[in-house]
């Protein structure tokens, strides 16, 4: 191996160690957030307790299969497990053209997905714009899900389980969305709101 090849190998090795170190911290943080012991995580994932301990201490580079088993047991995506350390600064910019748009069945209400795509499994964030009379009918989300609609312009109405509540600009509605629910833009003016949907409990440090 030439000098250049050796330097390239050393760079890759260093990068793998950094990735493994960040992953170990993430695995340990998620395990503790779920109040799981090493033995319990080993039982749920099928990964040996000793291997998990080595991963958390950054003493080994696990295979993709091992990472997948741990991510399944911890109920997170592989991308999150492999994500860089939270303390690393970053900034991302999305253009208007890069922002996905959802449209209600009646074509009167549009939801721009402005939340981070990596959190879409548990946290969804939308910019809602509607013509007067626009209706968004939604099926039940997973059990325990909660939605928050913060009205910026106009007036909206939410109906869940036969209960209806209205909100004007500056007001917010929070409601369970683990059952069929509807959001309507009422009145004769267009409406705009921010909608945040928490699909399951967030894993916090």
From TrEMBL:
InterPro entries: Cro/C1-type_HTH (IPR001387), Cupin_2 (IPR013096), Lambda_DNA-bd_dom_sf (IPR010982), RmlC-like_jellyroll (IPR014710), RmlC_Cupin_sf (IPR011051), TransReg_Diox_bact_type (IPR050807). Residues 27-81 form the HTH cro/C1-type domain. Pfam families: Cupin_2, HTH_3. GO terms for molecular function: DNA binding; DNA-binding transcription factor activity. GO terms for cellular component: cytosol. The keyword Hydrolase does not apply. It comes from the Bacteria. Gene3D superfamilies: Jelly Rolls, lambda repressor-like DNA-binding domains. Keywords: DNA-binding, Transcription, Transcription regulation. Signal peptide: none annotated. PANTHER family: HTH-TYPE TRANSCRIPTIONAL REGULATOR (PTHR46797), HTH-TYPE TRANSCRIPTIONAL REGULATOR SUTR (PTHR46797:SF23). This is XRE family transcriptional regulator.
């Amino acid at each position: 191996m030439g000098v250049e090849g050796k330097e390239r190998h050393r760079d890759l090795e260093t990068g793998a160690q950094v990735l493994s170190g960040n992953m170990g911290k993430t695995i340990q943080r998620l395990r503790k957030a779920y109040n799981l012991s090493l033995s319990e995580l080993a039982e749920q994932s099928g990964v040996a307790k000793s291997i998990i301990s080595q991963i958390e201490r950054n003493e080994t580079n696990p295979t993709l299969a091992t990472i997948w088993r741990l991510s399944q047991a911890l109920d997170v995506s592989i991308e999150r497990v492999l994500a860089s350390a939270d303390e690393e600064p970053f900034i991302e910019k999305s253009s208007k053209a890069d922002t996905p748009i959802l449209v209600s069945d009646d074509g009167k209400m549009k939801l721009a997905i402005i939340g981070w795509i990596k959190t879409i499994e548990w946290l969804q964030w939308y910019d809602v714009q509607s013509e007067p009379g626009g209706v968004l009918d939604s099926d039940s989300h997973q059990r325990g899900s909660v939605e928050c609609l913060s009205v910026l312009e106009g007036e909206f109405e939410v109906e869940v389980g036969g209960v209806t509540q209205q909100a004007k600009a500056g007001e917010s509605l929070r409601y369970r969305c683990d059952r069929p629910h509807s959001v309507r833009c009422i009145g004769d003016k267009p409406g705009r709101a921010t909608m945040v949907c928490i699909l399951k409990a967030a894993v916090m440090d």
